[in-house]
Amino acid sequence: MLYWLANLSDGGDVFNLFRYITFRAGAAFFTALIFGFLFGRPLIDILRRKQGKGQPIRTDGPQTHFVKAGTPTMGGLLILSAMLVSTLLWARLDNGYVWIVLGVTYGYALIGFADDYAKVTKQNVKGVSSRVRMALGLALAAVAGIAAAWLHPENLTGQLALPVFKDVLINLGIFFVPFAMIVIVGAANAVNLTDGLDGLAIMPAMIAAGTLGAIAYVVGRVDFTDYLGVHFVPGTGELFVFTAALIGGGLGFLWYNAPPAAVFMGDTGSLALGGALGAIAVCTKHELVLAIVGGLFVVEAMSVIIQVAYFKRTGKRVFLMAPIHHHFEKKGWAEPQIVIRFWIISLILALIGLATLKVR
Questions:
Q1: Residue 84 gets which letter from DSSP?
Q2: What is the pLDDT of residue 121?
Q3: How confident is the model at residue 167 (pLDDT cuts 50, 70, 90)?
Q4: What is the pLDDT of residues 53-102, one digit of tens each?
Q5: Which residues, including other chains, have CB under 8 Å from residue 270's CB and lie 6 or more apart?
Q6: Neighbours of 343 (CB within 10 A)
Q7: Most confident range, picked from 129-138, 205-214, 325-334
Q8: Given phi > 0 = left and psi -120 to 50 = alpha, else beta, which region is 231?
Q9: Backbone φ, ψ for residue 348 (5° rounding)
Q10: Is the pTM for the entire model greater than 0.70?
């Protein structure tokens, strides 16, 4: 919205700063961060009053989780509100990629909110039917995939770019949209599964968002893409503003979500953030790099898939409990120990993902 102030510039005054994505990204970060600090505590107080008993705790989970009874959920509303205000203020609203990512993010937020609301009002860990959530998620992802394919330059439409291999594209054709749906839905549910310990999901999500934001900025500049040998996707640089807002809002939330959490993110936040990561990867043609950058989320999701499949086949379990962070809890690891070690793993994977830009 504030980008229009650049039109007031003659090229030599302060208004010229609004032309630069990097300036607006920095402003988006601080806007979202300040928003989180200002409205975090009032929002938590409202959620606590409205929810009463807070988020229901799984009876089959680690015993240490029962001390968290009464903690309110839907804290993702804080992140999402900060992101929305900041993005609308600082991003170019004539950019189609921005609207694709916003649509996916807040569409999944609505699905997550409905699920959280059902859990809180019924005081049951089973919220909205998984089939309903999956159907709605797939529909949103399909629209996003179609829109992204329409916006991509002609030489990249329907193509899958391979990391590391220079100028290698696989033509998915009509299968690009189903592939995009898998990426977005998979990312949303993987982040959702990771959100099981205080602060566990938000920091890796911010790390992944920062990495994808840097990639979006690079692939949106023809000079950088020529130098690095990656595919040029004009317009994606504006997503850097969105990811900066996500990081700012995430830090504001983490202030209250750090152990012991004053509020849980809930499906409202985790599904939205995961969907956002998937949508950015699809828009920037870095779907496979997301699997590296978000490798922690992939491992968490795979641990559940492996556990369920193996149990159905043999009646035995591979892990003490899935997702895998609960396995380590059962083995005696303290919650902060698991969280910080998983953060470190996320950072390492993000650096590997960034390295794919240079290694060609």
A1: H
A2: 84
A3: confident
A4: 767 766 666 666 666 777 899 999 999 999 999 999 999 999 999 999 99
A5: 76, 112, 188, 191, 192, 194, 195, 201
A6: 18
A7: 205-214
A8: beta
A9: -60, -45
A10: yes
User: Which residue has tokens 């990391």?
Assistant: 163
H or E element: which one contains 161?
A: strand 159-161
Q: Which residue in the block uniquely carries the two structure tokens 């591979």? A: 318
Give the 3-state secondary structure of residue 169.
strand
Write down the domain spans for the chain: 24-291
Q: Could you give the CA distance from residue 312 to residue 144 in angstroms, rounded to a whole number?
A: 34
In the predicted model, what is the mean pLDDT of the chain?
92
72 prior amide bond cis, ω within 30: no
The two tokens of residue 349 are 């994977």
Q: Are 357 and 230 in contact (CB under 8 A)?
A: yes
- Give the C-alpha separation, 241 to 29, whole Å: 8
Q: What does the pLDDT read at residue 83?
A: 98
Helix, strand, coil % (nearest 5) of the chain?
Answer: 70, 0, 25
259 within 8 A of 71, measured Cβ to Cβ: no
